[in-house]
Amino acid sequence: MQNHQQQMQGFGGGIIGPQYCAPYNVDLAIVRKVLTLADSFSVTDINGQSPFTLKGSLLTLQDHRVLLDAAGTPVVTLRRKLMTAHDRWHVFRGDSSDMKDLIFSLKRPSLFQLKTELDVFLAHNTEEKVCDFKVKGSWFERSCVIYAGESLNIVAQMQKKDTAQSIMFGKDNYMVTVYPNVDYAFIVALIVILDKINKRQKK
């Protein structure tokens, strides 16, 4: 655990921002409406507060999303790189799409996967020889684990939670636990992209 804390402190206490880091576990519920034309995500914490909402454009349904904070201010912009086989996504600060504002990118390490695996590279890791974070999971089981780099240090976990209400109203409910000193805005952005990649693979 000490190595994990040292590693997270090496990222300056926050990948997107230190205000999204807490010295304790952060539990979030992410709900996605699945019977709508455009994806609709809501994020709530254990106090019922909504730290983030997701905004998308119908004109760029597959490749562009903006994560907003509770005040409606853009936190990050998620953009899928077109014409790429590995489902590469870029995440920029605020509502920017300029490479100078790049925070991190991610891609599938291989084209054919039985289980979901994504490699995450922070902006300064331009050589991309070793990933900074790795996402592993089974989308069929609606669960995933996010690790720090190639290590076994877990920084967040997600699992699907089925309820009578979610089934009746066509919603996907994900319960996410973000570990101490880990940027939970970063984790939410990863899960949104993970969801988009897996939706594309079903088509």
Detailed description of the structure:
This protein is α+β, with helices and mostly antiparallel strands. The protein has one domain: Porin, CATH 2.40.160.200. 16% of the residues lie in helices and 38% in strands. It contains three helices and twelve strands; from the N terminus they run H-E-E-E-E-E-E-E-E-E-E-E-H-E-H. The chain has a twelve-stranded antiparallel β-barrel. A hairpin with a 5-residue loop joins strand 10 and strand 11. The longest helix is centred in the last third of the chain and has 19 residues. The chain is globular and about 40 Å long. The termini are far apart. The N terminus is likely disordered.
Which features characterize this protein?
single chain; 203 residues; alpha+beta; Porin; twelve-stranded antiparallel β-barrel; 3 helices; 12 strands; globular; disordered N terminus; LOR_sf; LOR; transmembrane; transmembrane helix
